[in-house]
Amino acid sequence: MWWVGSWRPAVAVATALFVYSSLLLVPVVAGTQGRAHAATAAPGTTVPGARTAAAGAPAAVDPEIHNDIRLRLDERGMLHGEETLTFNGTAPETFTRSLTETMLYDTDHDRNFDVSAVAATDLEGEPVEVRTEKIDGKLLARIDTAGTGGVVLSYQVTGTVSEVAQGIQMEWRAVGGYSHRVTATDVTVTAPLPPEALSCLAGERLSAIYCTASDMGEGSDLAHFLQADMDPQDRLDIVVNYPPGTAQGEPILTRRWSLVSAFEVTPMTSSVFGLLLVVLVGGLVVLIRVRGRDERALRKEAARGDQAPVGPGDQGRPRFEPPDGVHPGQIGTLVNETVDITDLTGAVVDLAVRGYIRLEELPHEHFTSVDWRLVRLDGPPGESLLPYEWLLMDALFGEHATVRLSRVGSRSTVDDFPARIDRVREELYRDMVRLRWFARPPHQVRGRWSTAGMVITVSGVVLTGLLAAFTSAAFTGLAVVIAGAAVTAGAQYMPAKTKLGSSVFAHTMGFRDYLLSQRSATAPAGQRVELYSRYLPYAVIFDDVDRWANILASAALADLSDEELTGDGLAWYTGPREWRIEDFADSISAFTVILTGIITNSRRLRLLNQRRLR
Q: What are the boundaries of the region Disordered (predicted)?
């Protein structure tokens, strides 16, 4: 078998790319069950500090060394070794013997040998100090040999026996390396039963040369091997086959680390994935159940909103009554759990229509120049603004009574426009809870689940890296990564409406269907301008502003007198002298686009400034 050093765990920082690429390797792992044995080889330098002859150095400095190795295999499968090292000449200060503990077994496993009871005596039986050290799959036995004519090294080895088709096979690296050149190495192996076959390999690393001699003799109960002139880096591997029942034992195998083996599919990892699948499917069922409340409400209650949103008003005139009193600024949060910039634009138009802001289109300084003056008004008597509407008015005007649209968001109007807009958004989220449409603010729910998902994902990546470095159960870590990624991806779906919120959502969707239909533009003459004006902010939210602006302009042209149309046109929207009601659709569309851009750019600028400060 090929020599291999002991497995050294290389703890790698696992990345998401490393983890998910491993998934592609799993089928390869599952299908690789080969048992092809390699030929035996030695490490590059068998014994650290081994002596080699320098150019021009006299060869007579080292003594002539012989090693007589006697190995006895008992019935329990333990190999007892006794080596007699003799020095013909001055013994070295220290002689080091390398005993192999780890060898390559097959493409996936290392074979381990448990070497124990290492001791040494001189030729008279007096104890000699021996120091052992484990390095790269070898047990180095350093023997103090100064002033001796030889030493006897003894040890025990388990893990050399394995079952083969013909019986029992004992496989062992009789010599893993010396610290000095050895003239002759004589190995004899005895066992409870006579050997049936034997083989050996010797020489340097990757060498496939047979040893100098081997025999077992007819009727003999021992196997004999001889290797002459072994340099320090040489090794001697022996294999002896015995009849069945000669000895007990099996090879000690450990799976060699590799990317493939680290992500091995085992019953344990498969069970973890099965459990993960159950959890994910269960969570999906619960989520569908909760989110399905909206769909069920749509089927049952949307029709209640799909009709003219009017009720009896003063003096018999119809009064606009949106479903459940929902305001344009609240719709976006109700529908997709997020306060969008369009929601704020629709809220500004709604404030104008309701009499809290007057939009005055200014004379065009040149063909492409367009601007508006926003005038702050007290609004109708007996009505009040919602908290988020107060904050929105404050963000637009600050301490001013009028402001140009082109100056909205500038420091000359308010110092902290982006922060004020953020407060409007926060208040809208709180509004959802206050109205009991959501149990908790949707953005907080999303944030918590997103954070939890990212923490789980990062933990899974780290866990996968650690498991890959030290075990073959890294596939289990992938389960955590997948779970974290699923939680992160599903965070946007976690905010769930209450039963009341689902009902209001259904009514609002019915109202949207009504506004987008032709039925909504059939109000009686004389009531259309007021009613269609109230529709317009909702049309901004539902992305139908151009159509409804034209409908409103046509209604005003038909219902209002020339005096009413001259200059002002609508009570909440006025234009310059050359402006006509026919221009209203283009004007209000431009206003919503520009206002949306102002709010968007101010928030982006704030994010950029925050990043620079960091």
A: 298-329
Helix orientation angle between 528-541 and 328-336, rounded to the nearest 10 degrees: 30
What interhelical angle do 442-470 and 474-490 show, nearest 10? 170
Q: 3-class DSSP state for residue 294? A: helix
Q: How far apart are CA 483 and CA 479, in angstroms?
A: 6
DSSP state of 314: G
For 44-75, how does the pLDDT look when each residue is reduced to its tens digit (9 = 90+)?
A: 445 655 654 433 444 446 789 999 999 999 99
Distance CA 178, CA 98 (A): 6
CA distance 506 to 320: 19
Interacting residues of 520 by C-beta distance below 8 A, sequence separation 6+: 308, 514, 535
The three-state secondary structure class of 399 is coil
Task: Please state which of the ranges 20-34, 47-61, 322-336, 360-374 shows the lowest mean pLDDT.
Answer: 20-34
CATH architecture of 34-50+62-258: Sandwich (2.60)
* 312 vs 327: CA distance, rounded Å: 19
- Helix, strand, coil percentages (3-state) for the chain, rounded to 5, are 40, 25, 35
CB 211 within 8 A of CB 201: yes
Distance (Å, whole) CA 315 – CA 582: 31
Rounded CA-CA distance 319/530 in Å is 9
The angle formed by the CA atoms of residues 123, 124 and 128, to the nearest 5 degrees, is 70
DSSP track, 431-497: HHHHTTSBSS-HHHHHHHHHHHHHHHHHHHHHHHHHHHHH-S-HHHHHHHHHHHHHHHHHGGG---B
The domain segmentation of the chain, as residue ranges, is 34-50+62-258, 305-435+501-613
pLDDT in tens, 114-130: 999 999 999 999 999 99
pLDDT(13) > 50:
no
| CA proximity to 572, closest of 310, 431, 377 | 377
Sequence-ordered list of residues with C-beta below 8 angstroms from that of 213, at least 6 positions apart, any chain: 224, 225, 226
The 10 Å Cβ neighbour count of residue 23 is: 13
CA distance 473 to 22: 12
- DSSP secondary structure code for residue 325 in this structure: G
Q: In sequence order, which residues have a C-beta less than 8 Å from that of residue 563 and are 6 or more positions away?
A: none
- Angstrom distance (rounded) from CA 90 to CA 450: 76
In angstroms, rounded to a whole number, what is the distance separating the alpha carbons of residues 101 and 528?
95
Q: Indicate the helix (H) or strand (E) that contains 269.
A: helix 267-301
Strand partners, 81: 71, 155
Structure tokens of 45?
A: 């330098």
Enter the tokens of residue 385: 């603004």
Report in angstroms the alpha-carbon separations of 362 from 140, 151, 359, 571: 95, 110, 9, 16
297-301, Cβ contacts within 8 angstroms, sequence gap of 24 or more: 297/502, 297/503, 297/505, 297/506, 298/505, 298/506, 298/509, 300/506, 301/503, 301/506, 301/507, 301/510
Tokens 């591997």 found at: 237
pTM value surpassing 0.90: no
Residue type, 603: R
Closest CA to 515 of 258, 237, 328, 362: 328
